[in-house]
Write a structure and sequence with these properties.
The complex is a heterodimer of chains A (about 375) and B (about 290). Helices cover about 65% and strands about 5% of the residues of chain A. Chain A is mainly alpha-helical. Residues about 85-95 of chain A have low confidence and may be disordered. Chain A has helices at about 10-25, 35-60, 65-80, 100-120, 125-145, 150, 190-215, 220-230, 230-235, 240-265, 275-290, 295-310, 315, 340-355, 360-375, and strands at about 155-160, 170, 180, 180-185, 185-190, 270, 320-325, 330. Chain A is globular. Chain A is built from 15 helices and eight strands. Chain A has a two-stranded antiparallel ribbon. Chain A has a two-stranded antiparallel ribbon with strand order 2-3. In chain B, helix 1 packs antiparallel against helix 10 (about 235-255), helix 3 crosses helix 8 and helix 9 crosses helix 10 (about 235-255). The radius of gyration of chain B is 19 Å and the shape is globular. Chain B has helices spanning about 1-30, 40-55, 60-85, 90-115, 140-160, 165-175, 175-180, 185-210, 215-230, 235-255, 265-280; strands spanning about 130, 135-140. Helices cover about 75% and strands about 5% of the residues of chain B. By secondary structure, chain B is mainly alpha-helical. Classes of the chains: A mainly alpha (about 375), B mainly alpha (about 290). Chains A and B meet through helix 5, helix 11 and helix 14 of A and helix 4, helix 9 and helix 11 of B.
């Protein structure tokens, strides 16, 4: 088959992408403010998952420490927003574009850090890389606490005094009174959560398109070749050092942007914003979405955002207990609202997915697609 | 000088704990080429079992200790048979992810069953000091070192002088040939997991009295154990013990005498050790360099 320019698949992909953009644009009209906030977090996780999957799913370099790159991004934004010649925490948000420009900067800082980490990582393969990145993730909060004058130590940094809309402020030209809410492209965005939703999903969709474009070309082919066999890739002329460090850099850029948005969304950062469990949940999301997939990562992001809530509501659907036969007593159904329960459910799902559906959601979709062909062949 | 000597001894006690957990990691890595990221959480979970037996059921400390080791062994075997065995031949990534799943399960389950409340865990040894050459040494420290050394000696004897020990070594060295001569390799791997879980339980029970018991208790210890195993050579049981003791003493001295490091930066220092050893001498101090045929 000749590969010339855009193919039919790409056209279909572009159409689906536009539909998704439309859906994302109009969805807030039908959902509550609280739901918008939750979906904003889904967008943020989506960005981080794309980043992690570029490294782990496409290039085969395992990372158990992506929360550390998110921390770099989050702290970059926090320091840039709060440090404007005022003492940390006393910054009253001014409502200009300066705050938004910290997001790409956070991505760049994290990206450079990732690129640099890529060099020692060149000498680590498989298990050892997993080990080193895991240690990075565990050590990150300790490092943040230590450099207190810079990071605010254990107390962290408040980005805004109170959550405000940022970007375009709406100021009356005559009275100079600013009112809540901004208008963008004819959309009136009234609340912080709704604005957060649009911010994170706009960035997520742009970065998704970028990832898709990068991965379908020469760079993506090099990544996949490295994943499938470093030796074969090297003998086919792929510069391992260049592409592996590049994968680390791009991946960390995505994580940094996600971390920056997470900081804005929570309006403060402290060492507990980026715990080791964050890194682990990112891995869970990538596995659930499917290693080496792109759009199914949305499902992974939905999964890590909503699973704790689903787990906690399990008790609504389960009986409170089972009566065992002939005087054996009663078996109580465990309380899924208790702390710790969601983590257990995460763990069980992670293992079940690896045992039964190693391809995650993407693999499942692929299997379902192959089904009609199988039936026809019979 | 007195303080220095005390710091060395308490460093050795910490190091003995790292050594026990590092040995657990090495046992599994030698047999299956896998690093069990859940080793620390498994240790924490078994420590909670020991706590329940002593505090809630009033068992004798040593009896509870022994019972916990037995339960840990059974638990380790069960985990290998149920979740690790089906993915034995899968990629490294798959296996790492499954052990991460175990981390989540044990950490969550501990919080679920016992809550995240910090618990006091009684030490196996009296909280006293003895004078050695005029220097007051904590009995708990000496006891910790003794327990780990006895355990390592027993384990060594088990591997060296029993038939099962021989079979275990054989299946780690050459599984296919072992299968041909009738060794049930699958079960040997399960026993390896059981022994590792037991070592972890020992590490947990020795750690808990000093740090107090909570679900995050072993996370830092696991990183130190990683560092110890990497330092000693991830395939060398002797290296794991030596690496653990070296790291314990080293970190304790660095933490106490270098103000900048203090108590906060010990973890990043361990991370640095992992990175430097992996980059400069991946086989560790006592491991054999591996040449890969391509």
């Amino acid at each position: 088959m000749r590969r010339v320019g855009l193919q039919r698949r790409d056209a279909v992909g572009a159409a689906v992408f536009l539909l998704a953009v439309g859906a994302v644009m109009f969805l807030p009209r039908f959902i509550s403010d609280f739901r918008a906030q939750q979906l904003a977090y889904v967008g943020i996780y989506f960005i981080a998952l794309i980043g992690l999957n570029i490294l782990t799913g496409f290039t085969g370099q395992i990372s158990l420490g992506h929360g550390a790159f998110m921390a770099i991004g989050g702290y970059t934004t926090a320091i840039l927003i709060s440090d404007q010649g005022l003492a940390i925490g006393s910054h009253v948000f001014s409502g200009d574009m300066r705050d938004l420009w910290t997001i790409p900067l956070a991505g760049l800082v994290a990206g450079v850090a990732g690129f640099l980490f890529g060099f020692p990582a060149l000498r680590l393969t498989g298990l050892y890389l997993a080990l080193a990145t895991f240690a990075v993730a565990v050590a990150t909060p300790a490092v943040i606490r230590k450099f207190e004058h810079f990071t605010g130590g254990g107390a962290g940094i408040n980005l805004f005094e109170s959550p405000r809309l940022t970007g375009v402020s709406k100021t009356d030209p005559i009275t100079f009174e600013s009112t809540e809410g901004v208008d963008i492209l004819g959309f009136h965005i009234a609340t912080f959560n709704e604005w957060l939703y649009y911010l994170s999903w706009t960035i997520a969709l742009v970065l998704f398109a970028v990832a898709w474009f990068v991965l379908r070309g020469r760079v993506g082919r090099a990544f996949r070749a490295i994943r499938d066999s470093e030796l074969a890739a090297a003998s086919a002329g792929v510069n391992l050092a260049r592409y592996k460090t590049l994968a680390f850099g791009i991946s960390a850029f995505y994580a940094g942007v996600a971390g920056s948005l997470l900081g804005i969304a929570t309006t403060f950062v402290n060492p507990d914003t980026f715990p080791i469990t964050l890194s682990i949940f990112l891995l869970v999301g990538v596995v659930v979405g499917g290693l080496g997939s792109l759009w199914p990562l949305v499902l992974g992001a939905v999964f890590i955002q909503f699973l704790p809530l689903w787990a906690q509501s399990l008790n609504d659907y389960l009986p409170s207990g089972l009566d065992l036969p002939s005087g054996l007593g009663r078996l109580d159904v465990p309380n899924f609202r208790a702390p710790g329960a969601p983590a257990v459910v995460y763990g069980v799902v992670l293992i079940l997915v690896m045992l039964a559906f190693p391809g995650g959601a993407a693999g499942l979709v692929r299997r379902l697609r192959a089904l009609p062909a199988l039936v026809r062949r019979r | 000088m007195t303080e220095f000597f005390q710091q060395v001894v308490s460093g050795l006690a910490l190091g003995a704990i790292y050594a026990a957990l590092a040995l657990a990691l090495v046992l599994i890595h030698r047999a299956t080429g896998v690093i069990n990221f859940a080793q620390g959480e498994m240790a924490m979970f078994t420590t909670y079992i020991a706590w329940t037996l002593t505090t809630n059921h009033g068992w004798d400390k040593w009896l509870a200790f022994a019972a916990t080791l037995v339960l840990a062994f059974i638990g380790g075997v069960a985990i290998q048979r149920t979740v690790i065995r089906p993915i034995e031949r899968a990629s490294i990534l798959t296996i790492v992810i499954v052990t991460i799943g175990l981390v989540l399960i044990f950490n969550g389950a501990a919080g679920w069953i016992w809550t995240a409340e910090v618990r006091f865990f009684p030490s196996l040894f009296p909280n006293e000091t003895v004078s050695v050459g005029g220097v007051a040494i904590s009995v708990i420290d000496l006891g910790t070192i003794a327990v780990v050394l006895v355990l390592v000696a027993l384990l060594w004897a088990f591997f060296q002088f029993t038939k099962i020990g021989l079979a275990l070594r054989a299946s780690a060295l050459n599984p296919d040939a072992s299968r041909l001569v009738g060794v049930r390799v699958g079960w040997m791997l399960a026993i390896g997991w059981g022994l590792a879980a037991m070592l972890g339980a020992v590490a947990g029970i020795l750690t808990a009295p000093t740090t107090t018991l909570d679900p995050t208790m072993m996370q830092a210890i696991l990183i130190y154990a990683f560092a110890a195993a990497v330092l000693g050579g991830i395939d060398s049981p002797f290296g794991a013990v030596a690496g653990g003791l070296l790291l314990g003493v080293g970190l304790n001295l660095v933490g106490n005498y270098i103000d900048f490091v203090g108590a906060d930066l010990r973890l990043p220092v361990a991370l640095l050790i992992i990175l430097v050893v992996l980059l400069v001498r991946p086989a560790g101090l006592f491991g054999k360099p591996i040449a890969r045929r391509v």
